[in-house]
Amino acid sequence: MRIAIFHVDAFTADKFAGNPAAVMPLPSFLDDSLLQAIARENNLSETAFLVPHGEDWRLRWFTPATEVPLCGHATLASAWVVTQRLDPGRQRVVFHTASGPLRVERAGERFVMDFPARHPAPVEVPPGLEAALGARPVEVLHDGFNYLALLDSADSVRRVTPDFRAISRLDAGGLVVTAPGDRGYDCVSRYFAPAKGIDEDPVTGGAHCALTPFWTGRLGKREIRAFQASARGGELVCRMRDDRVELEGECVFYMEGQAEV
Q1: Radius of gyration of the chain (CA)
Q2: Active-site amino acid positions
Q3: Total domains in the fold of the chain
Q4: Average pLDDT over every residue of 156-175
């Protein structure tokens, strides 16, 4: 069996930056164990599997280790594949997912995604977090999925050298570190999720579902420019829309071909 595969860099205008995703359209979903094996073989942060659903698409995301309920960059990459390869010229796509319907619209060369907001709330610093991070947070919050550690500066975020094994033992899916922005950005962040098979995710849409309400509230803005300071780096424009978040970004095509399964 041969399956089309597209490799797209998301949340960037530059090749070899942002977050690479594999996108694989299917007539119907294969067995979960096979989907997981394919994602593990692709060995990217996420592989997105697309199945037609009327005029829309069903969408699932797998890391090399597990299926996840929400993924921003692979949704962005999937929207690029639909509008550029599967249905050229299309301007709007609806993906039906474990997180509900996700709407994506083209805005020139950019895409605007409508995602559910995650509202982080302050919590006590969990045992082992400071040691795992190698830094003392100013504040720690939890958004229902991940811990969010606020650091004192953008430089502190960039300098963090975490203990991934220790982070994997925290009672959360992952750990977001963030600080007020520099270099023209409102905030900077990094995201670590070794328990999901991703030591450091290059650019994370799901993390910005929490960072958007957090920073728009702190800064008194409805829209922010965010930078994820991984080695690859990536940028997003983030907006609050009632209890939803708009995440806007670009994609760069890298490769397409066929996988034999």
Answers
A1: 18
A2: 46
A3: 2
A4: 97
